[in-house]
């Protein structure tokens, strides 16, 4: 299973990196979302993989590592806030620069 | 007391600026601090003359070996007296030089700061501290040379000097750190006693080279002398003080201070004496050809510094004594000559020796007063320069060297002495006689007040007194200073024992009766050279013009050009490219150490693969790939992104993280909603614009990143784990009063982290609020999407509207339940807050903002604040009970009908988290949502 999760992490990271290298703000937002999924999952996997072992005392014989889970939990919420922030930035830049190129200058297109 | 001496100039620092508009005499108060410091030093003088060393220590950063440690022995006392004593006269002189000029205040402030830095160098006991003052003198000197910043010549001269002395300072830093590593201490007391240790260390060549580089650049030794002549664009008091008496002597001071460590080593003799003799000859030779009075004096200073360096290089005690003696003499005759040049410059409007002639008629007093220092410089009898020059020749004969060098050095020394007679004659005769003035800008020359001459009188008297009774100094302070400088480990005298001062034996002069003959020869040689000046000048004019400053400027321009190109190449304004740099840098720095990893597969037992999970993972990976391949079709890519998030939720649930699953699920819903909202204002497709090259390059980078992360996570996951979580698992129930360890960590063990994180959340929400505040997205970008979206914009499907209303109370109930059980079962403030926010935003989606706002409170910003306040107050509450911040407390209670239940202060903290999350999420959603209503954005919400 570990090998599959590792490959998944690789694919998520690669897709995220590829997308944040694109020239349009929306692609970058999508890329950041995928990349934060990858990062969360990576942090989570640092506690190793466990099945049927929630970190609740008394619920199971074994317990998964609760610390990465606590870290990832807050990371998810903050990631959401940051996504919202980046999205608003993207909207703002479209409004003020009249295009959605990350460099603010669009060489190929008529201004929208 | 030592600290007071050091701080005196600094205490008066703001004075001149405050008194800028006060009468002239008030600004003159600036000469008080050096005067007081001078008197304080004189008071301490008898003690240090006996060979005692006064120390003052204040630990500053002991971990770095850095302390404010001061040391006053006879050597530092000699230098400190020079600095403050000459300082007083320069202040007095400057008072007349800057009479009535507005820049006087700035000058006094800078010169006082410089004085403090200079005193710091000579009084420092800690080498690092000394370096700090050393660099300060370079910086203040930069400001003083560039005092007239509106003139290009000043700016360039200042830049050249900063470049050379600053570079030397860096070398010195390296040398000092090496010494510190060898000796294990930066205190001078330890270092001076570690001669053997340092000389036998394999790093000795580096230490010596770097320290000498620092000293030579500061003291304008060949080939670093080039900055000094260009520093003459400074006001004359600055030249008189910094560039003849003090700053250039800092390098000499360093050589003498470290004399016990280095002297006697062969390399020390060859380098120090060698550079010294070259500097002596080059300086005195070039000086003859200088037409600028101050330029001539600058080169003369260079040659005298070379002479002192040469003496230090001999490494004998006698030579060291003579070096100190000449250092004092040089300060005494060079400072008044600079002042004379300043007076003439101000009176005549130029200091070009081709124009300034025959001044004796206009300034008879000045002529007499400057004759004495000039004659001292040339080494005429009965003046101080006479003795130092004679002793110099004696020492060059008695040097430790043998063979060819033994004959060569005295010859070169005599040659240098002849040159110095030549330029002294040129300066004096040319200025005061030599026919009539030529085209003076100011005619007739303005006579300065006679009070201006007071410092000149003082210096002339000093030159005569030391010329008649040299033993006053030689057997007094100089002998004590030489002894203090030359403490070798075997010669170290305990401070309390009887003074043991080796005085210089003046009878050597009697031993060499032909010395007077040599003096006469040098004088005649100089005279001959001056008489033949026309021929010499003609010859000199034919030499190629080597102007250091021009070459330096050219070099600077080239360097600036290069760096501009480099900056433009790297920083071209393209964010896309910056992201690339960041990613590649991250890859290189994380990838580099990973290359060395041989075993990727650890020895932890792998989890078996089941078909269902494997299928899910493959599907998830496929969707992530789909996002990047289909990103041109934005809505499709967005839907795939949402699906990716949902699958990750399932993944968390599958791998024993119920809390994460719940959180991810509720966040995912709202994140996709926000992106949907945004997409309605953005183009619906991304153009295919990446070139083939860029596309392949990005695919390669992305693949490397992906493979790297995959390998790294595989390597970690297959290795056995040891985690600090065992502590949390063991103490969760007993210490935190909850069985859900994830939640207990969040609200209790790592409560401070959580407090920080909800603060970040709150700030992000406020930033979104602020950015959307004035956002006026009047029309959607283009028509195609208007067609696309128009059908949905205001129509709220009946089915959803009907269903949303009963869902709200149910959802709130669920979130309350999730919140309350969070301490013991999956749930908690974060998750409950997200569920509440999702339920409320469903009302927006189903019925529209206007409908919702009539029916709900929308003070989201106060809500966010309240949440933070609750969480923070809970934390502070534990302080009331004398416990550390955020300590939690819990207890069990019995209630009728309900049974036993638990109350924990952590629940209160979690309530703060809950409120913050609800407030922040709704603040974001509502303000983004209002942008897209058909009635326009409307007022801000929250």
Describe it.
Chain A: Keywords: Cell membrane, Membrane, Transmembrane, Transmembrane helix. Chain A: The chain crosses the membrane at residues 26-49, 70-91. Chain A: This is Na+/H+ antiporter subunit C. Chain A: It is a multi-pass membrane protein. Chain A: InterPro entries: CPA3_antiporter_subunitC, NUOK/Mnh_C1-like. The complex is a heterodimer of chains A (112) and B (942). Chain A has 112 residues and is mainly alpha-helical. Chain A has one domain. Helix content of chain A is 64%, strand content 0%. Chain A has 3 helices and no strands. In chain A, helix 1 runs antiparallel to helix 2 and helix 2 packs antiparallel against helix 3. The longest helix of chain A is centred in the last third of the chain and has 32 residues, at 66-97. Chain A is elongated, with a radius of gyration of 19 Å. The termini of chain A are far apart. The model of chain A has no long low-confidence stretch (mean pLDDT 87). Chain B has 942 residues and is an all-alpha fold. Among the domains of chain B are: 267-488 and 500-531, no CATH class; 611-688, no CATH class; 739-942, no CATH class. Chain B has 42 helices and 4 strands. In chain B, helix 1 (2-11) runs antiparallel to helix 6 (104-123), helix 17 packs antiparallel against helix 18 and helix 18 (317-348) packs antiparallel against helix 20 (384-398). The longest helix of chain B has 32 residues, at 152-183. Chain B starts with a helix and ends in a 13-residue tail after the last helix. Chains A and B meet through helix 1, helix 2 and helix 3 of A and helix 29, helix 30, helix 31, helix 32 and helix 33 of B.
